[in-house]
Specification:
The chain is mostly beta strands. The chain has strands at 4-7, 10-12, 18-24, 33-39, 46-52, 57-59, 67-72, 77-82, 91-96, 106-110. Strands 2-10-9-4-5-6 form a 6-stranded mixed β-sheet, with no helix packed on it.
Length: 112
């Protein structure tokens, strides 16, 4: 089964940027639909942003205007550029197509 590996998490101050990457063994561009999700402590996992193979994107209201999902053809990765980060963005972030297994995720902590 195809696996997805997230990276790029870390600790960042409020207002700062961070970029997450998601790698897979196959072509990231051949995936019909893939998205970023997050799970904060004590909360349910939620969708953050998704992208279809034709480039259409959907964002959660909480991240609109701050986060950008995009694919990097040179690196064959799905990325999430996060700007103007807030403490409430603190969570473990995952990437995957619908109905695929969850990976390890990458921890993002927004704190001063």
């Amino acid at each position: 089964q195809v696996q997805f590996v997230e990276s790029g998490g870390g600790v960042v101050q409020p207002g700062g940027p961070l970029r997450l990457s998601c790698a897979t063994s196959g072509s990231i561009f051949s995936i019909y639909l893939i998205g970023w999700y997050r799970q904060a402590p004590g909360k349910q996992r939620e969708s953050v942003a998704s992208m279809s193979s034709n480039g259409a994107t959907i964002y959660a209201n909480a991240v609109k205007g701050r986060f950008t999902i995009f694919r990097d053809s040179a690196k064959n990765t799905l990325n999430l550029q996060m700007n103007s980060l807030k403490p409430e963005d603190t969570a473990v972030y995952y990437c995957r197509p619908p109905n695929s297994p969850w990976g390890q995720g990458t921890q993002v902590t927004v704190s001063s």
